[in-house]
Specification:
Layout: H1 10-22, E1 28-32, H2 39-51, H3 65-72, E2 78-80, H4 92-102, E3 112-116, H5 124-135, E4 141-147, H6 155-158, E5 162-165, H7 171-182, H8 186-196, H9 200-206, H10 209-222, H11 230-241, H12 247-267, H13 279-288, H14 291-309, H15 314-327
Length: about 325
């Protein structure tokens, strides 16, 4: 793989290849944009390009030993820093270790490249240690941070990085990619692309067969609002509880459905509706339910999501949520 395989990010790729060709690389970069649009992949491609033994026009060859090692995660001059197992943030010990590592010259390549994907929250001590590294960057080192939103990165850290924004991918590009990867018909791939809002990561999640079936069952229960047997609600709730870490993704899907209903309830126009394959069901619900009730349902989903993050009983929380959303006469 090389920069040529990075889809839908010509400005970001151009900025990096120009810097490589002109030898005006920054000591630190901040890639920003939604998840699933190529930030992490581009960071690895940057590491390959600056350490490639046979570079071509600012890009890696993709075939030399250096490129192969980076692709396999085995290059001694490239490190990916993420929270330790069981931790939610990056500790000061990890930053101190990286600072020690960055003091030495590269072993095999031209640069040592440190990648911190997703800008995991840093402890105060770790943030201060990272800031000192950015203020006095060691020679022949490149640090790459990626984040969904620049505002989530400490201002003192962001200001010391060259910022490169990444754009959401086009619906067509995402749909074509998903259709090919998951062997879907184009309509289903297009639906996944619409729900994903330009993210390959989200489109891949929505394209999963299990997710798609759960969505169909949820919409079927929505269409029977107030007339749904509790046994069907509890059955769906049990299946959702088994999603584990994917449950938040399904919460997002639920919110998209009620967002579409709210759009239809506001002006009746279907422009902007994501779940176009269930337009008739959503239109019928939008005629029957006032906007304030739809807002209340969205709020209930948000509250359930927060409760589960705080380790509330998952099954009980889902049972209560689905009863209020699907089985209670309005």
């Amino acid at each position: 793989m090389s920069f040529k395989q990075i889809k839908g990010q010509p400005k970001a790729v151009s900025a990096l290849t120009t810097a490589i060709i002109s030898r005006r690389l920054s000591h630190a970069y901040l890639f920003t944009g939604i998840d699933g649009i190529g930030k992490r992949t581009t960071a690895l491609e940057l590491a390959k390009a600056v350490n490639c033994t046979h570079p071509v026009a600012g890009d890696s060859c993709g075939t030399c030993q250096s490129c192969g090692k980076i692709e396999a995660g085995l290059h001694p001059d490239v490190r990916m820093i993420e929270p330790n197992e069981g931790a939610n943030n990056i500790k000061i010990e990890q930053i101190r270790e990286i600072k020690r590592w960055m003091r030495f010259r590269p072993n095999e390549g031209h640069y040592r490249v440190t990648i911190i994907p997703g800008y995991y929250p840093l402890t105060d001590e770790a943030a201060n240690a990272l800031l000192k590294t950015l203020e006095e960057p060691p020679q022949d080192n490149i640090l790459v941070l990626t984040a969904v939103d620049r505002k989530k990165v400490l201002a003192t850290i962001a200001s010391r990085c060259q910022q490169i924004p990444f754009n959401p991918l086009s619906e067509t590009l995402v749909a074509e990619f998903i259709a090919e990867k998951y062997k879907l018909d184009y309509d289903q791939a297009r639906l996944s692309a619409l729900m994903a809002s330009g993210s390959l990561k989200w489109a891949g999640i929505f394209a999963k067969a299990d997710f798609f079936r759960l969505r169909e069952d949820f919409v079927a229960l929505m269409s029977r609002q107030g007339r749904t047997e509790l046994s069907r609600v509890f059955s769906l709730s049990k299946r959702l509880s088994q999603l584990k870490e994917d449950l938040n993704d399904f919460f997002y899907l639920m919110k998209l459905l009620y967002r579409d209903e709210l759009i239809l309830a506001s002006d009746g126009a279907s422009t902007g509706v994501t779940n176009f394959d269930h337009l008739e069901v959503l239109q019928e619900l939008a005629r029957d339910e006032p906007g304030l009730l739809i807002f209340d349902k969205l709020d209930r989903i948000n509250r359930a999501e927060r409760a589960i993050l705080r380790n509330a009983n998952r099954q009980l929380t889902l049972d209560t949520l689905l009863i209020r959303l699907l089985a209670t006469p309005q």
